Amino acid sequence: MAEPTSAVVSGGLLLGVAVPGYLAGLDPSVIIASFAGAAVFMATAIDFPVWQRIILFLVSIALGVFGADVAAKILTVVLSVPLRDVTIPQSFGAAITSASAVRVLMSFSKPSRDGESIWSRFWFKKRDSNNEGEE
Question: InterPro entries under this entry (predicted)?
């Protein structure tokens, strides 16, 4: 059973996110789904300190809200092949995006076995090729 304090805090956070989003003209189901996806991300992000998890939680909600439409369209196209005439709602796209987007972006910046991140490989190759012509 959930603690009363955690239920009140969760409800307050959800209300604090949903009301401004509703007033801004956003779909409430997208906001609630983004909150749920961010909660899933936060529950699995035990390898970060609390203050970083809070920041990543807010970033995850924002990514879920802004990426909901794109994710829903991509999932609709991908799932239409085997399932035919399926339409994924924006709220599902928001939940998937907010639960996974921060981890995906972190995996790009995480060093691989050879010590370079994916971003640094692209950046330094492009930069080195530009510098070779100048010398």
Answer: Phage_holin-like (IPR032637)
Q: What is the pTM of this model?
A: 0.66
pLDDT tens, residue by residue, 25-77: 778 888 888 888 888 888 888 888 888 888 888 888 888 989 999 999 999 99
Residue 3 maps to a domain: no
* Number of domains making up the chain: 1
Please provide the distance, in angstroms rounded to a whole number, between the alpha carbons at the two ends of the chain. Answer: 68
7 within domain boundaries: no
Taking 3-state DSSP, the helix, strand and coil percentages for the chain, each rounded to the nearest 5, stand at 80, 0, 20
Within a domain: 6: no
Contact 30, 68 (CB under 8 A): yes
At 75-110, the pLDDT tens digits run: 999 888 887 888 889 999 999 999 888 888 777 766
